[in-house]
Amino acid sequence: MNIKKLFGVILFLLLVLVVVPWLIAKSGRWDFYYTLTSVSLLSIASAGVWLTFYIGRINIGQGAYALAGGYVAAVLVSKYGINFWLTIPLAGLFCAALSVLIGLPILRLRGVYFAMVTLVLTEVMRLAALALPVTNGAKGITSIPLPQELSVFGFTVIPDFSTLANTKLAFYLTSVVLMVICYFVLWRIVNSRLGHLCRSLQQNEELSASIGVNTAYLRVIAYSISSFFGGVAGSMFVAISQSIYPSSFQVTDSVNFMLNCFLGGLGYVFGPMLGTLVLYFGWDLLFTAGRYQLLIYSTLLIALILLLPNGILSMGIFNRKKTRS
User: Fold this and answer.
1) Of 46, 15, 36, 41, which is closest to residue 268 (Cα–Cα)?
2) What pLDDT, in 10s, does the model give residues 169-216?
3) Phi/psi of residue 150, each to 5°?
4) Helix, strand, coil shares of the chain as percentages rounded to 5?
5) Is the model's pLDDT at 95 over the cut of 90?
6) Contact between residue 71 and residue 88 where contact means Cβ atoms under 8 Å apart
7) pTM for the whole thing?
8) Residue 252: which of 138, 123, 127, 125 has the closest Cα?
């Protein structure tokens, strides 16, 4: 990472960790913490979808893994008393393992066929949540305790959230840090040998296979990492809402995860982050339009995709070589 990129990262961290909380404290609009926390977590799930696009697959099933990750965290915390912070990686690993089982047969499909199969995954996961005893059916899992203290060698890394005066700020900071970590991992993957091999799948799978690239292995690896991000995001949503239901993540959410990638830019690692921010706030800003909200929203979204087919990051000073951060 060169000096310019390092300066940009430091500036971004100062903005989200210092400037934004200061502005919210000055304005007294504490509800913005929840909004920005949601944006952070949604962008994590969208980052996973972006990685699937990176290997040339359209993923419309990320909501299924967010729902699965949420239930894993909820069950482990409420029924087995496991520290919430340990459930985050466990939820991600569960979703990654699940995606390997699901992905092995369907990752052989191309283009629209893979997309249509993933489209039903969220609904299948919702029906599973309704049917399985461990998920408590339609009643869901409620009264999930706030995250407990996390200590390492007797040193408190994260305090007990139930003792904090402002849990909204704590959830915001935690979600932003988690988002930064996830996007750093995504950036490292893209700029590694694995990322270069994945890019070859996007361009020409037959050519990649002809030179000895194990295309099936790469597809499964990328899809499992994608699902891991979805599970992580879902587990954090459970901690914030302190409940989860079969309807917590629906097909609409899976579609929005995909749209976030399109809007921000499929050729840019941080495209999903910007796309999530614009899409989330864009929908809220149009709330005053009443019954015309969806019509205006859809029209503007189509116009943006037509005018900026490579996403928002492709315009002006952001118009650089694809897949660069």
Assistant:
1) 46
2) 999 999 999 999 999 999 999 999 888 888 888 777 777 777 777 888
3) -115, 120
4) 75, 5, 20
5) yes
6) no
7) 0.91
8) 123
